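User: I'm writing a short report section on ligand binding and want a predicted complex to refer to. Could you take this sequence and decanoyl-CoA and write out the structure as tokens? A short remark afterwards would be nice.
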Amino acid sequence: MAWSLGRICKSVQRLGSLSSVQSQLSHPATSGSVRTMLGLPSSCFSKTRDFSLPNSSWGPEMMRLYKHYNSQCEVVMEGGVKQEGPWRRLPSYNRVLKYATGGVYLNKIIQSKARLFTRNTGDPGVAFEYVLFFNREEQRCVGIFQAGHLLEGPPGHVHGGATATMIDTVTGALALILSGPVVTANLNINYRKPIPLGSTVLLESSLDRKEGKKTFITSKVTSSDGSKLHTDTTALFVSISFSNLLLGS
Ligand SMILES: CCCCCCCCCC(=O)SCCNC(=O)CCNC(=O)[C@H](O)C(C)(C)COP(=O)(O)OP(=O)(O)OC[C@H]1O[C@@H](n2cnc3c(N)ncnc32)[C@H](O)[C@@H]1OP(=O)(O)O
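Assistant: Sure. The structure tokens for the complex follow:
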């Protein structure tokens, strides 16, 4: 087996700094800190395209909400001095790890071709178009999500699993930032109103409470103007050791 404990340990050491996301986020966003948002070196990303930046597929509502939160990532003080604002945009790549754990439970083909589920197509607008923002003071994360035509479930509407994916993503990102490495243990979603395909919705998540290894997050999905409630959710994330995850235990 072309794999060694040393390689795993190196990967784990890199990932060990994942909880440094908190300190990363306390610094102003620059292209460098964007790449290291997850505490990973740039070599860990197979491509450096940041999928959370606007592209030609983003519609007017997606752009409006993006500008609304992005404009609060940096505020201009009197005298033109720029300061970090209450929100941080979270960058997003199509691969978190390039070198993790080949040979243990990933064969080489899977290892080289694996992609983050939500960023598995380079074709703008066809599936998950989204951007996440984090507010440290309010311990809140928002996601702006435009649902592409490949996500159809009921005719003309978004598949419930696709909606769940985005809820898992925005609640998971918040739990990760607040608690370090976690996995979803429970996701309890009430689907209130279907989401029209092609529309842009707002996902809001906030910390409910932390109890030992457990982080409880609540979340809702609304229409972009907030007038319609699509889902409400409670989620439980459990802290894990990354070395256990990489070793498959
Ligand atoms: C910026 C990019 C962000 C991207 C975010 C993407 C987010 C995506 C997140 C995911 O999709 S993760 C993948 C889906 N999740 C999994 O595959 C998790 C699989 N399950 C497990 O690995 C284990 O079941 C788990 C680690 C969740 C729990 O294992 P254990 O039960 O051995 O853990 P432990 O015994 O340490 O439990 C800790 C506490 O959690 C409680 N617990 C565990 N699972 C629970 C559950 N399902 N419901 C309620 N409570 C639960 C457990 O009772 C205990 O409570 P107490 O501390 O009060 O005793």
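A remark for your report: The longest strand covers residues 200-211. Residues 90, 168-169, 172-173, 176, 183-186, 212-214, 236, 238, 240 surround decanoyl-CoA (CB under 6 Å).
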